[in-house]
Design a protein that fits this description.
Blueprint lengths: L3 H4 L16 H11 L5 E5 L4 E4 L1 H4 L13 H4 L4 H12 L4 E9 L8 E11 L5 E10 L1 H24 L4 H6 L3 E6 L4 E4 L1 H7 L20 H12 L4 E9 L5 E11 L2 E8 L1 H55 L5 H26 L7 E3 L1 H16 L3 E6 L7 E3 L1 H18 L4 E12 L2 E3 L2 E3 L2 E10 L6 H4 L19 H11 L3 E6 L5 E8 L9 H4 L11 E5 L3 H13 L3 E5 L2 H11 L4 E5 L8 H11 L5 E5 L8 H4 L4 E5 L4 H13 L1
Parallel strand pairs: 12-14, 20-21, 20-22, 22-23, 23-24
Antiparallel strand pairs: 1-2, 1-5, 3-4, 4-5, 6-7, 6-10, 8-9, 9-10, 11-13, 14-17, 15-16, 17-19, 18-19
Helix pairs in contact: 10-11, 11-12, 11-13, 12-13, 13-15, 17-21, 18-19
Length: 663
């Protein structure tokens, strides 16, 4: 029987005691162990007493009797390797170690390789009382690995001998390959070298190879060349090499010394580096935007608290006067509350627009209106010790820009002015209409035409010429480490030029700095703003049917009341399921107004898409407090679709409804 060697053994002298005294948990573990097809053994108790199966006993042929031995003594030669795994198992953590151990087994003519597994075993109380040690024969796999390694080394040796004389492999390679003398003269180059960098061997007669390396990378390249000349191999050295046309390409080189020559292989990684830089710039832009938001948060909280105090105080007095039956000055309290709410809404929209990250969305705008709305953020960014002078053109021409990005650019310029003036001084913001002939100003080639200029002037320390020439370079900064990423002015430059405008800086030491943003005049008229919506001719609805979907009960009740007061028939729903059921039963409607953020796992976007599948021409007004891509362009761009960002006034909501129904 498989377990006769265990039953016939005298276990009395061992720490386990007589076989008849073994606990049930140990007996069960022995039975399971004996059924295993692999060499395995039980290691039980604090003394680590060994109970092996017959296959396990053959692992160490030099040990005549392993029954009842201490496990650590049996494996004393390998204990430094396996001991830590044993202790992990005794702590209750099973593990399998596939790093094989070489043994001289009876079942193999030569050395054999085994991988070990350790599984904890528990007694009747659930405590770890021992472990199961399993050995798995990996000899065949190790032999395959050995053969593969020998084949790979042989192939590498063949390639090393074959490469210098293999003309077709040399020419077909996608990576640039060169052979260079120890004096760094180019001896041979493959077609990929010429394709990537434009140079042929003959064209290099008058150009030193080291001169192709970008000056900023030459120190690192010289160190690599020193290693090569000393017989060391060089791997994955990245540097910029000059193309024959004059621009630089990023290359990743590996090279080695081969007799009297140096052989190098280079891969063009220009696109990879550009992609990494773009991602890094995106992350840094986001970080810098959030850094400015953090600087503004305290001041914004102070401003919002003041506005909320005005709202709360007005409502409190209004409630008290109405309770007393006194109606005098009620209009004043309502006016103060509404004015505070309007200012709070404006601040909220400005801050959310500032934090938005998305492609440019240009629209016609009055630059004076935008700057005046930005005033609170500018004052908060500069701090209390700065005076701001606003010198705005009386009637500026309209321009077409992304308002949120222009606000960000202005805040960057204000932040730079604050740092340049040591956080105190005077900042002047000017706007003016400019009719310019074709000319070049400060390196900017400006076509003839009408423009609107925005100038931001500070009385700070100014910039010397060498710093001024690099001011728009990405990552260039003169601020202390941790105070700036060097992307602020680069972002301003990129935004202005992306908008079809021009930007330059005028500065000199101790004479302050003037940054000029120049935008082309928009030839059309400004569209009606939200505040102008209510000026439409229609003053009352004609019983048009509206489906109103919003999970905020209080807000929905207010919107319903004002719509009913204006002559509309309103049906309500609190979530997507109710909205679709209502539309199926009572639809279609003249207009569907739905919040985007709805409970229940189905958003307002999905409600709109489901309704449009039933009726493609259904007019939809989406409302939301989210500003980060609230709607897909494909959905928002369809006729009869509009979006309003919360918070908005009920009066503007009614005006928007009139506008959509009349379209």
């Amino acid at each position: 029987m498989a377990g006769e060697h265990i039953t016939r053994f005298d276990w009395g002298p061992t720490p386990l005691g007589a076989l008849t005294q073994w606990p049930p948990s140990l007996r069960v573990a022995v039975d399971i162990m004996l059924l295993s097809p692999f060499p395995c053994a039980l290691v039980w108790g604090r003394a680590l007493t060994l109970i092996p199966n017959r296959s396990y006993m053959a692992l160490l042929p030099g040990v005549k009797q392993s029954l009842g031995m201490r496990f650590d003594l049996l494996w004393h030669e390998e204990w430094p390797r396996i001991g830590p795994w044993v202790f992990q198992a005794l702590e209750g953590r099973a593990n399998f170690i596939d790093a094989p151990i070489q043994l001289n087994s009876h079942e193999h003519d030569g050395p054999a390789w085994f991988a070990f597994g350790y599984a904890p075993l528990r007694d009747e109380q659930g405590a770890v009382a021992g472990l199961l040690h399993t050995a798995i024969d990996n000899t065949a796999s190790m032999e395959q690995v050995r053969q593969w390694r020998e084949q790979a080394q042989g192939f590498e040796h063949q390639v090393g001998q074959y490469l210098p004389s293999s003309d077709h492999l040399w020419r077909m390679a996608r990576d640039a390959m060169v052979v260079v003398s120890r004096e760094l003269t180019l001896l041979a180059a493959n077609e990929a070298w010429q394709r990537v960098l434009g140079w042929d061997v003959q064209g290099m007669d008058t150009v030193a190879l080291v001169d192709l390396v970008h000056p900023g990378d030459r120190a690192e390249v010289r160190l690599a060349i020193t290693d090569l000349l000393q017989g060391k191999a060089v791997h994955e050295v990245e540097s910029r090499l000059k193309h024959r046309d004059g621009h630089y390409c990023w290359m990743c080189w590996s090279a080695r010394s081969q007799g009297d020559v140096l052989v190098a292989v280079g891969r063009d990684i220009t696109q990879e580096r550009s992609s990494i830089v773009r991602e890094a710039q995106g992350l840094l832009r986001d970080n810098q935007r959030m850094e400015i938001v953090g600087q503004l948060a305290g001041g914004m909280a102070h401003e919002m608290n003041n506005l909320l105090a005005g709202v709360g105080g007005s409502l409190e007095l209004l409630q008290r006067r109405m309770g007393q039956g006194r109606m005098e000055r009620i209009d004043e309290y309502v006016h103060v509350a509404r004015d505070s709410v309007q200012r709070a809404m404006a601040l909220t929209h400005r801050l959310l627009a500032f934090a938005r990250s998305q492609p440019l969305q240009p629209r016609p705008v009055n630059v004076n209106t935008l700057l005046l709305e930005l005033k609170p953020l500018v004052h908060q960014a500069l701090g209390p010790d700065f005076d701001v002078h606003w010198q705005l053109d009386v009637a500026p021409w309209p321009i077409r820009v992304d308002c949120a990005q222009l606000e960000i650019a202005m805040l960057h310029l204000c932040s730079n002015a604050r740092d340049a003036a040591a956080e105190q001084g005077v900042l002047t913001v000017r706007t003016s209409n400019e009719r310019l002939p074709a000319r070049t100003l400060h390196g900017e080639s400006i076509p003839a035409g009408d423009y609107v200029a925005i100038l931001v002037e500070d009385g700070g320390t100014g910039m010397p010429a060498e710093i001024l020439s690099r001011a728009f370079e990405p990552f260039f900064t003169t601020k202390p480490k941790g105070r700036g990423s060097g992307l602020g002015l680069a972002m301003v430059y990129g935004f202005v030029h992306q908008s079809g405008g021009h930007v330059w800086i005028e500065s000199s030491p101790s004479d302050g700095t003037v940054v000029t943003l120049l935008f082309a005049r928009y030839p059309g008229d400004l569209p009606a703003s939200d505040s102008d919506i209510r000026a439409c001719e229609r003053k009352r609805g004609n019983g048009e049917r509206i489906l109103l979907v919003d999970d905020q009960l209080n807000l929905r009740a207010l919107m319903r009341e004002v719509l009913v007061d204006n002559g509309f028939e309103v049906h309500e729903a609190g979530d997507a399921v109710q909205a679709l059921a209502c539309y199926e039963q009572d639809g279609p409607y003249d207009l569907v107004i739905t919040d985007i953020g709805l409970p229940g796992g189905m958003s307002g976007r999905q409600v709109g898409k489901a309704i449009r599948q039933t009726r493609a021409t259904q007019k939809m007004l989406f409302i939301t407090g989210y500003t980060e891509q609230p709607l897909e362009r494909s959905l928002l761009g369809k006729p009869g679709t509009a979006l309003m960002l919360k918070p908005f006034s009920l009066e503007n909501l009614v005006g928007k409804v009139y506008q959509m129904l009349d379209e």
